[in-house]
Amino acid sequence: MKFSQHALVRSQNRALPPPIIDLLLDFGQSRRRGKADVHFLTRSGRAKLIEAIGSKAYGQIARKLDSYVVISDQGSVITVARRLRRIRRA
User: Fold this and answer.
1) By residue range, what is the domain housing residue 10?
2) Edge-to-edge strand list for the sheet holding 67-72
3) Dihedral, CA atoms, 43, 26, 78, 15, nearest 10 degrees?
4) What is the pLDDT of residues 22-46, one digit of tens each?
5) pLDDT digits (tens, 9 = 90+) for 66-86
6) Is the separation of the CB atoms in 6 and 79 below 8 Å?
7) Whole-number pLDDT of residue 90
8) In a domain, 55, yes or no
9) Domain annotation covers residue 89
10) What's the structural domain count of the chain?
11) 81: which strand partners?
12) How far is it, in rounded angstroms, from Cα 88 to Cα 77?
């Protein structure tokens, strides 16, 4: 996955390493916002993730999973951030 310079800085600032971003992309759901896709975890995505990695490993990273990733149409990560509130449906 290609990261923009902004995304690299933001992921470091927000302590979201690439493996966490990969989990959000693999198990998360996406919503179209403007000209990009926002990926985040839902309850069903969290349940699938717990099945895949186990509850002990999930417990260690659970706080970091309250985040979202914005992907451009070209497939690069634009930014990452912590979710402070619910992502609305369009």
Assistant:
1) 5-81
2) 29-33, 36-40, 67-72, 77-82
3) 70
4) 999 999 999 998 899 999 999 999 9
5) 999 999 999 999 999 988 777
6) yes
7) 59
8) yes
9) no
10) 1
11) 68
12) 21
Length reported for the chain: 90
Rg (C-alpha) for the chain, rounded Å, is: 13
- Which tokens in the block code for residue 6? 């902004």
C-beta of residue 84 within 8 angstroms of C-beta of residue 10? no
Kindly provide the residue ranges of all beta strands, DSSP E only, lying in 16-84, ordered along the sequence. 29-33, 36-40, 67-72, 77-82
DSSP state, 82? E
Name the nearest CA neighbour of 42 among 75, 81, 71, 68: 68
**Cα–Cα distance between 18 and 31 in angstroms, integer?**
21
Query: Is residue 87 included in any domain, yes or no?
Result: no
| CA–CA distance, 73 with 15 (Å, rounded to integer) | 25
Buried b (16+ CB within 10 A) or exposed e, 15-28: ebeeebbebbeebb
Domain assignment present for 90: no
Query: CA–CA separation, 28 vs 43, rounded Å?
Result: 9
Is it the case that residue 47 has pLDDT exceeding 90? yes
